[in-house]
Amino acid sequence: MPPTSIPATSDIVLIGAGIMSATLGTLLKELDPSLRIAMLETLDDCGQESSQAWNNAGTGHAANCELNYTPQRPDGSVDISRALEVNTEFDLSRQLWSYLVKKGAITDPRAFLHPCPHMSLVWGKENVEFLRARYKAMSAHHCYHGMDYSEDHKQIAGWAPLTMEGRDPNQPVAATRIITGTDVDYGSLTHLLVAHLSAQPGFSVHYKQHVVGLEREGSARWRVEIKDIESGDAHSVLSRFVFIGAGGDALPLLQKSRIPEGHGYGGFPVSGIWLRCDVSAISDRHHAKVYGKAAEGSPPMSVPHLDTRIIGGKKSLLFGPYAGFSTKFLKHGSLTDLFRSIEPGNIFPMMAVARDNIALSEYLIGQVLQTSAHQFAMLQQFFPWAKRHDWREAVAGQRVQIIKPDPQHTGVLEFGTELIGATDQSLVALLGASPGASTATFIAIEVLQKCFPDELTESAWLSRLRQIIPTYGIDLKADADACRRIRADTAVALKVDNV
Ligand SMILES: Cc1cc2nc3c(=O)[nH]c(=O)nc-3n(C[C@H](O)[C@H](O)[C@H](O)COP(=O)(O)OP(=O)(O)OC[C@H]3O[C@@H](n4cnc5c(N)ncnc54)[C@H](O)[C@@H]3O)c2cc1C
Question: Does residue 249 line the site of ligand 1, with CB under 6 A?
Fold first, then answer.
């Protein structure tokens, strides 16, 4: 007998209780309160995998400081187009969160979000020239209004003292700073969203329920097969729409659905380790997220950064991540995950990626073989007077990078996120994990556009969507006035700085 609380049928099934499912569920329920939504989660609480506060860096990714979004062209100029995309995707999250604060669904934004300047810091002549060119391109755009730049040791020390104390005064350095940056506790946010959803009729969340299969039932419905983790009992839910928001486990579930659109996809797991410091005398002297330059061959999520984190009201510092290799797809996953995901359809793409990404393989092998002394030396490049005994290792989450079938190269490794959906719009899976949690609203809107086009009309959801996301349909990269207005408005609601 299925547990009575799990409905036999539902309009929507959300697999996984991380930030992505929580955000999509929130948006759908705001657009149509009559929807019946069931959220299914293997673990005993929401937000426990990558969305958990310590399993990501908590950066509200607005591409202010992450240098991997701004490649240098051969002529020395800097391409900021990708940064602008990410920057304005974050504006969508700010709008959804502000809407929830204004309607009282989130009582205090400080429960999950804190103002925290975002900085880029580089050293060495060549890197200084790069940052200068990057600043020139970015500060000319309205999206980066208020960005500061300095090559002066004293001024940078005023922004982030720990990074300058003990540094060779003759070393060429440069930094940019944006004071409107944020530190976000995505674990807390997930809890707030799931609590808000749970208070509404028609929504239910079911913990310790592991989705083991997805079968088509007739032409437009899915039978979601579930195993109860405690009792071992099997049961199922029939649903007309399924969102696979299972983080690293999205790939195996997509494979189980057997939709042709998922054919040939594979996954490459990258694990992460942080160094964490909870000594208040140190963390109280640093208030910024300071991003540096990534090592050659490293995946984009391995750009080192020295971060302020504010979690549960306490300030700590985080440094890393140091990338590593594990065959698990989730922190709570199994070492057999990678091997079980290999199937005849994706073996050639996976082999092609292994062949074409030697620099990445060398980088990961190098990271795995690094001694803790090597790791600490990297921190000291950011914080010269750091002391080993003040820091401890902490596990960051797993990220499964997408291996995408590609007719020309057989397979390519992608570092972004991708929605893979059934052509009949009845199921969609979210693969990949970058830029990540901060762009969950952008991803949720993409799901609406991909799978609910008939509802996104003036007579149905559109006017409601514009109340939630006032700039929906406006390109903030092009419309400077709209950009300024919405940032001023969301800054008040979210209690963050505006310039
Ligand atoms: C080292 C690191 C640093 C990061 N830094 C940042 C950052 O600074 N800013 C940012 O925005 N993003 C960051 N990210 C990315 C961000 O953490 C993720 O993009 C985001 O948390 C993914 O959310 P999710 O809901 O898709 O997945 P998750 O939070 O992993 O949730 C998936 C859920 O699905 C459940 N599940 C899995 N399989 C099943 C199943 N079969 N049945 C039922 N439930 C299942 C899992 O238990 C889990 O609870 C970082 C990630 C890493 C690893």
Answer: yes
